[in-house]
Amino acid sequence: MNRKNDFSWVNPDCVVKRSSVHGKGVFAKRRIQKGFIICVFGGKVFTVGEVRNIEKISPKRGEYILKLADGFYSGIPNFGIKFETADRINHSCDPNCGFVGQVTLVALRDIEKGEEITYDYAMCDDDPEDHFKCNCGSVNCRHKVTGDDWKNPQLQIGYVGYFTPYIQSLIDKIR
Known about the structure:
The protein is an alpha+beta fold. The protein has a single domain (9-174), classed as Beta-clip-like (Beta Complex). 15% of the residues lie in helices and 26% in strands. The protein has 3 helices and 13 strands. The chain has helices at 48-57, 153-158, 165-174; strands at residues 9-10, 14-18, 24-28, 37-40, 44-47, 66-69, 72-75, 90-91, 97-99, 104-107, 118-119, 131-133, 144-146. The strands form 5 sheets. A 4-stranded antiparallel sheet has the order 1-4-10-9, with no helix packed on it. Strands 5-7-6 form a 3-stranded antiparallel sheet. Strand 6 and strand 7 (72-75) form a beta hairpin. It is globular and about 40 Å long.
């Protein structure tokens, strides 16, 4: 599924097409089993200062950067000009994927052919300025997604083992 100049790897059993959740999304071309790797996010490592400069150039670009540690982020260096396949993986309050390690997204359960690939942004986002209206349509929909959602005790229990290490370290600090 990777295009020649993508920095991230996306499982070849996935395809990008129009999404009812948001714009374009990534969908399973065939059934994908629980535990299979869906995506390994790649890119350039940025400091917090570089991210702020990117956001000045292209405010939307900051939405596609993954926080690795305090002051460090990863993302593609094209500043919103080009989007990768991995950038099209949408949020859901009832996700079928989660993180194993810093940048690897795996299937939380079997994903059926035609099903949209999603993860809950609470698994990797701690920016209190991040917020948007959720369109996932799931029974569990929070209706608003924020960078503080990782603090929700129900999500912490539901996603045990599927937060990025950075978010897990924040959870561990408040417990």
